[in-house]
Amino acid sequence: MKKLFTVGQVCKCCGVSRSTVLRMESRGLLSPARVDEDTGYRYYDIYNVTKILHIQMFLEMGLTYDDAYSYYASNGKSPELLAAFESRLALLTRAYEEMKLLDFQRFHMAVMPPGETEKAVQ
């Protein structure tokens, strides 16, 4: 029998609120592994936990729930989402390289007081 977790356990493990888990369910991103017919309690498996963490990663990267839905609906083969990732990667790479260049220039182009230049060259 596979291990099932309550919504409280999942929330604690993933660092999300109950409303976030329910929001993922209402958007079709998540489905409990089991729902108790008598109590209505939802139970989740490790696949659900992994998926919640994956969706949270997408959100932290600036994507939306709709983007995450597109990803899962296409089995991870969404050309639109891939293009969005490539565009963001290019922007991040450019910003990173510019910051490194500015830091390099600041470190190597320090201003010396008058008269110090001659001593440094000798």
Q: Report the CATH architecture of the largest domain.
A: Orthogonal Bundle
Tally of separate domains: 2
> Stretches where pLDDT falls below 50 for ≥5 residues?
none
Total number of strands: 3
CATH class of the largest domain: Mainly Alpha
Quickly give the structural class.
Answer: mainly alpha
Whole-number average pLDDT?
A: 87
- N→C terminal distance: 78 Å
General shape: elongated
Number of helices: 6
Strand content: 5-15%
Q: Summarize the biggest pleated sheet.
A: 3 strands, antiparallel
CATH topology of the largest domain: Multidrug-efflux Transporter Regulator, Chain: A, Domain 2
Strand order across the biggest sheet? 1-3-2
Secondary structure: helix percent: 55-70%
> Gyration radius, to the nearest Å?
25 Å
Query: SSE string, helix = H, strand = E?
Result: EHHEEHHHH
